[in-house]
Amino acid sequence: MGEEREDPQKLKRIAAAAYDYELDPRWADYWSNILIPPHLASRSDVVDHFKRKFYQRYIDPDLVVEAMPSSKPSQSTKPSASSSTTSSAADDGVQPRNAGSTTRSSGASAAAGSNTSSVHWDRQTLQFSVNAWVFIVAVLAIFPLVPRSLSYRAYRLSFVGTACSTLYSLYAVYGKPRAWNLQAVQVYFQSIIATKDFIYLIYCLTFVTSQLFLKFALIPILCRTLEHIAKFLRRNFNRSTMYRKYLEDPCVWVESNTTTLNILSSHAEIGLGFLLIVSLLSWQRNIIQTFMYWQLLKLMYHAPVSSGYHQSVWMKIGRTVNPLVQRYAPFLNTPVSAIQRWWFR
């Protein structure tokens, strides 16, 4: 009887291990939003654990994912604390038991673990506070009845707040370069350049330094903050009466429609690229900013966390524009080919 009960789970674990995560754009987005230390992110057992959690969430909810055990039993007070908190951070807050420690070391370990957990909680709370503030300010910026001067100030504060949030997230996950020389900085940037936080950091810096007032640019910011707010509320307030009464349905909808929000953000980001080209005809034109933003769009097209969404949007644009160019403006084939070579390079 025990083997019959284990067989379905064994098959599910085999299917989860055989699933091609790299071809699923949701995996890259899911992995980029997990805040774990870099030394844990490079461990294969940690990656496999979160792949099973991803498979349980998006593919097969019946898959049972066990808590990840601590890698080494502790022999003293200090290793016990580090082992317990490391496993806790890697497994979404699940704290493993440590059976091999004495009464004194267990007490010290529990105290150290609670301190580390409180620090981790403070980081999450800080990120939530900044994102909630950005969401309120961004809504204020796009609300039509708000005076233009206040709306413009809220517009810029939205980008500043998001830039601070992404910068803090990058520091919390990747730290800082090991040394302040060219080689170390280059290696550091290679590790963060394709992450979602770095892309949004450059996105915010592009518009916060611009003289253009494009409320359309706040759509990706709103989508990002909604995702982070909903995730935090569901993890930390799911037992609250007020949350269950007023916020549970919106948060569930946001978390179940992250793909829709990412597609909406991709449409807005690409549309902003064309708006910047049109703005070159106005007195507020900025050729350098337009070129840098299209470089950012190129990065979004190739980065794993956003490539799936951006490539689908560009395919739709190509299916619409290419027949028109072939029929009415065949002389544009040469410049379009040159642009495509630059884009795919």
From TrEMBL:
Alphabetic keyword roster: Membrane, Transmembrane, Transmembrane helix
InterPro entries to which the protein is assigned, alphabetical: PER33/POM33_regulator, TMEM33/Pom33
BP GO terms, sorted: endoplasmic reticulum tubular network organization; membrane organization
Source species, domain of life: Eukaryota
Positions of transmembrane segments: 128-146, 152-174, 198-222, 263-283
UniProt feature, compositional bias: Low complexity: 69-90, 99-115
Membrane-related topology note: Multi-pass membrane protein
GO CC, one annotated term: membrane
Compartment(s): Membrane
Region ranges (Disordered): 68-115
Homology family: Belongs to the PER33/POM33 family.
Protein name (Swiss-Prot/TrEMBL): Transmembrane protein 33 homolog
Organism of derivation: Hibiscus trionum (Flower of an hour)
Organism placement in taxonomy: Eukaryota, Viridiplantae, Streptophyta, Embryophyta, Tracheophyta
